[in-house]
């Protein structure tokens, strides 16, 4: 906030509407407590008894954050945010997907929320005693004019700019929008009217690593300055493979110290932390963009793991996302965008092929036409044209990969996917849509929501003289 306040004056004059969640603790067979790192923090005395700071005042009371029931927590946090709508200067969540889930929650529950505000009574589904006591002790009271306003804004089909309509003093959105979260930017622009979007920190369960010193920059230009007091940082050069020998085991890669990284090069992050991790490979691929004084600045590129592979092909997250972005350009004339996606390598067919699940958002314009079946088939081909040469060689020259398939699913499908993940042990605060799925129940859930199926109508371009 010290950096934000120098870029955005007046943040001490209002509040932040942030959607924070915890997960119920579990015990391992040996009796150790197991919980997500954010749950540990929110349950800590450092959070619960934090000193007053005018730059970090939230609309959500602690009681609403510390309820493990995700519906009750989301409902009560949204209720408080609506009641205090004129005080809200910034809106956020840990990840962009969580922020969009909050908007979806408002779409589904605005009638009950408006009724509570109108009557000053609390929805009977809210049974948590701490939440009830806190809300009924002065926060919730009859406000029929506010309820009428919420009804007027939410009852229509057009939700474009809904964030600034309901929270008119919002200056920016605060959420992670780098890496796989970048695909949510167009949807957030739609709901917020193009508000600035801030990705302020680079952190993980292993620790806090970096901070964005230019928070009001375009999300595509975000770089994080590594804070060398947070851990001991080393890097594995990502562009140079370790030499292999037929007689000897592969040698471990040479680690590069923090002060020796080079601008433009990519590295995998390795940390040694105060908590006891020793040379732990986080799995993030970073690219050096420059220096702040002597501290390197990094752009988050992607996760290390490969997402899709049928044969010799290897498609990673950034390649898949770029292919979807290129295909999405065809949907612009239909005022349609891809709001969620995931994938899997279907090897039941011979040859196997990539399956991409899309959930689409059609903006509210009655003059707009829906994308045709042929247009969505073309999207499949554009995606294939965007993938690497090894994939296209498998499709065209080797016939080892079948035509790419897009399966369009019903609106709300990925929300159900998140609910399923939470029901099986995931944390709502730290949940991210998996960009590749392998679990049979998840694939069955997605397939049960199909709207249409599309295949690439032709083979992508491949020059046999330019084999890798």
From TrEMBL:
InterPro entries: GH3, GH3_C, GH3_M. Pfam families: GH3, GH3_C, GH3_M. One of its GO terms (molecular function) is acid-amino acid ligase activity. Residues 224-303 form the GH3 middle domain. It comes from the Eukaryota. Keywords: Ligase. GO terms for cellular component: cytoplasm. Residues 319-439 form the GH3 C-terminal domain. The keyword Electron transport does not apply. Belongs to the IAA-amido conjugating enzyme family. This is GH3-like hormone conjugating enzyme. It comes from Parasponia andersonii (Sponia andersonii). The lineage of its organism: Eukaryota, Viridiplantae, Streptophyta, Embryophyta, Tracheophyta.
């Amino acid at each position: 906030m010290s950096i934000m306040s120098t870029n955005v004056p007046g943040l001490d004059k209002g509040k932040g509407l942030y959607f924070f969640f915890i997960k119920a603790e579990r015990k391992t067979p040996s009796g150790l407590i197991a919980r997500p790192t954010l749950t540990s923090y929110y349950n800590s005395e450092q959070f619960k008894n934090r000193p007053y700071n005018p730059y970090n005042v939230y609309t959500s009371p602690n009681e609403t954050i510390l309820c493990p029931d995700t519906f009750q927590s989301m409902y009560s946090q949204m209720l408080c945010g609506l009641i205090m709508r004129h005080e809200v200067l910034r809106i956020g969540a840990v990840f962009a997907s969580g922020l969009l889930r909050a908007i979806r929650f408002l779409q589904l529950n605005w009638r009950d929320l408006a009724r509570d505000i109108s009557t000053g009574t609390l929805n009977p589904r809210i049974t948590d005693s701490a939440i009830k006591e806190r809300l009924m002790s002065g926060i919730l009271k009859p406000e029929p004019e506010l309820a009428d306003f919420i009804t007027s804004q939410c009852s229509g089909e057009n939700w474009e700019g809904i964030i600034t309509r309901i929270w008119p003093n919002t200056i920016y959105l605060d959420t992670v929008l780098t890496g796989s979260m970048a695909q949510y930017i167009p949807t957030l622009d739609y709901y917020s009217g193009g508000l600035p979007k801030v990705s302020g920190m680079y952190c993980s369960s292993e620790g806090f690593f970096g901070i964005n010193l230019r928070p009001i920059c375009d999300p595509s230009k975000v770089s994080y300055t590594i804070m060398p007091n947070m851990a001991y940082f080393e890097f594995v050069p990502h562009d140079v493979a370790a030499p292999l020998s037929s007689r000897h085991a592969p040698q471990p890669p040479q680690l590069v110290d923090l002060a020796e990284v080079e601008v433009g090069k990519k590295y995998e992050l390795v940390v040694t932390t105060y908590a006891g991790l020793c040379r732990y490979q986080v799995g993030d691929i970073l690219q050096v963009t420059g220096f702040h004084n002597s501290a390197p600045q990094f752009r988050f590129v992607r996760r290390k793991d490969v997402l899709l592979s049928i044969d010799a092909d290897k498609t990673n997250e950034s390649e898949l996302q770029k292919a979807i972005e290129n295909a999405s350009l065809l949907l612009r004339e239909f005022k349609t965008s891809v709001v969620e996606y995931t994938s899997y390598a279907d090897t039941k067919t011979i040859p196997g092929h990539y399956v991409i699940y899309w959930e689409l958002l059609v903006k509210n314009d009655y003059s707009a036409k829906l994308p045709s079946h042929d247009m969505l088939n073309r999207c499949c081909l554009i995606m294939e044209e965007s993938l690497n040469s090894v994939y296209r060689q498998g499709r065209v020259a080797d016939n080892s990969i079948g035509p790419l398939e897009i399966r369009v699913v019903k609106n709300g499908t990925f929300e159900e996917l998140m609910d399923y993940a939470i029901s099986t042990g995931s944390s709502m605060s730290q949940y991210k849509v998996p960009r590749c799925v392998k679990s049979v129940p998840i694939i069955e859930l997605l397939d049960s929501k199909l709207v249409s199926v599309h295949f690439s109508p032709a083979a992508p371009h491949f020059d046999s003289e330019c084999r890798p």
